[in-house]
Give the backbone structure.
Amino acid sequence: VLLQESGPGLVKPSQTLSLTCTVSGGSITTAYYSWSWIRQVPGKGLEWMGTVAYSGITNYSPSLKSRTSISRANANTVYLRAKTVKPEDTGVYYCNAKTSWTSHWGQGTQVTVSS
């Protein structure tokens, strides 16, 4: 399974960030897979944002739930939308595909929130 994140590198404060994870070599509806967005902001470790399971069920980090949405389209695309972004949302955003026995990561995409 190969994952590729894409989206705007620069977003203004208060705008909505939209990122796309394109999946190849597998399907997001394959049983037992969960698809997550994880980010790393400067000076901090990896932060889990949310997950959509192969069943379509979603779960979000409590601290980000109010402004984060993860969705999917067709068999190969997972989306992240983060509303009302702030400069502290600047960081590298990763897509992750995981089962209980394997984990795959995209290379990450840099997002900078600045006016």
